[in-house]
Specification:
With 342 residues, the chain is of the alpha+beta class. It is built from 10 helices and 14 strands. The chain has a single domain, classed as ATP-grasp fold, B domain (D-amino Acid Aminotransferase, Chain A, domain 1), CATH 3.30.470. Strands 8, 9, 10, 11, 12, 13 and 14 form a 7-stranded antiparallel β-sheet that branches. Strands 1-2-5-3-4 form a 5-stranded antiparallel β-sheet. Strands 6-7 form a two-stranded antiparallel sheet. β3 and β4 form a beta hairpin. α1 runs parallel beside α9 and α9 runs antiparallel to α10. The chain starts with a strand and ends with a helix.
Length: 342
């Protein structure tokens, strides 16, 4: 289903009933929409599964509906606490399953009417709902508007991260080959029966709860995204929530997220990063769905010390966020200091 998660169906969804499925979290990672990169990061899958399950249970306790059914141990769903009590950081997550029709692409455009005609009233909303509390270095918001457009008193974006006066919510495409941010009118048309007000409301609830947990852990929650499904007249949170792949966190101004790997590639493989940008622009101009077919470079593998630093960052960050020593990892301060020397 994705470049970093495998997906298996145990019971198919229908137009009027939810199915059942399982996410299998791998140690793969992806940056710049490339898909699976040449290396894997040990324990990354277990880290993200643990953190995602922790956040889903946090949401459920607060009354926010989700598709989460528990983590999987010995082929059976159970709570995260039960899995950890058995000394088994989970790698699989049981979920309720909705319908995900094909999104046709013809003559340079995507046919969302066809998607919804097949989906009916039980479907994964083909949007990503993005919430932002802060604008860190590397945020796409810096390229799409001036600071004054977001209530900030700067004529230009400063080099350091800046806090927003109020969280903002944006919508971007989910299944297009290149993600693009949308106007409310465009997003509303793509969302189908699920209304933008309901999607924004649930995104703000998720943001508030994840931000609160981050604060308790001594972290700053900068931004993140969710996906949602629509079933039985209700919007529910889907995919995975509040991990270091979906969200950006920081500690004393230092990134604790996949953003560290993105920035590392920018500094060490700038030719590949530029080739990706060029290929995406060409795909837009030429109406090509698969931009990677136009990319003239591929990413290089990482050095072993970078892979180990990435592993320690994910594991130490998860330990910090959930407030217990699940993984054998250094303190987060030390993991960040090691990454900064690379």
């Amino acid at each position: 289903m994705t470049s970093v998660k495998n997906f298996r169906v145990t019971q198919e969804a229908t137009t009027d009933s939810m199915g059942r499925g399982v996410f299998e979290f791998t140690d793969a990672y992806s940056v710049f929409d490339w898909g699976k990169m040449p290396d894997e990061i040990p324990d990354k899958g277990a880290s993200l599964c643990t953190m995602g399950a922790f956040n889903f249970e946090l949401l459920e306790d607060a009354g926010v509906r989700t598709h989460y059914r528990g983590v999987v141990v010995d082929d059976e769903p159970c709570s995260l606490e039960e899995a950890l009590a058995a000394d088994q950081p989970p790698r699989e997550m049981a979920i309720d399953l909705t319908q995900v029709p094909e999104l046709p692409f013809e003559d340079g455009t995507y046919d969302y009417d066809a998607y919804h005609a097949e989906a009916g009233e039980n479907y994964l909303v083909p949007l990503e709902i993005v919430f932002r509390n802060r604008v860190p270095v590397g945020s796409s918001l810096r390229t799409r508007g001036d600071p004054t457009a977001y209530g900030l008193d700067f004529e230009e974006w400063p080099e350091q991260a800046v806090d927003l006066p109020e969280p903002i919510v944006e919508f971007s495409t989910k299944y297009e080959e290149q993600d693009r941010y949308l106007s409310d009118e465009e997003a509303d048309a793509i969302a189908g029966t699920a209304g933008l007000d309901a999607l924004e409301s649930i995104a703000r609830d998720v943001n508030r709860l994840v931000t609160g947990q981050a604060e308790r852990a001594g972290l700053t929650h900068e931004d993140g995204k969710i996906e949602c499904l629509y079933y039985d007249g209700e919007v529910r949170v889907a995919d995975v929530v509040g991990t270091f792949d979906e969200n950006r966190f920081s500690l004393d101004g230092q990134q604790v997220s996949k953003e560290r790997l993105r920035q590392y590639h920018k500094h060490t493989q700038p030719e590949w990063v530029e080739a990706v940008s060029v290929a995406k622009r060409r795909a837009d101009e030429e109406g090509v769905d698969n931009w990677k077919s136009l990319c003239e470079r591929a990413p290089e593998p990482l050095d072993d010390e970078v892979i180990q630093a990435g592993r320690d960052l994910y594991c130490a960050g998860t330990n910090t966020f959930v407030g217990r020593e699940i993984f054998d990892a250094p303190e987060l301060d030390d993991a960040l200091a090691r990454f900064a020397t690379l």
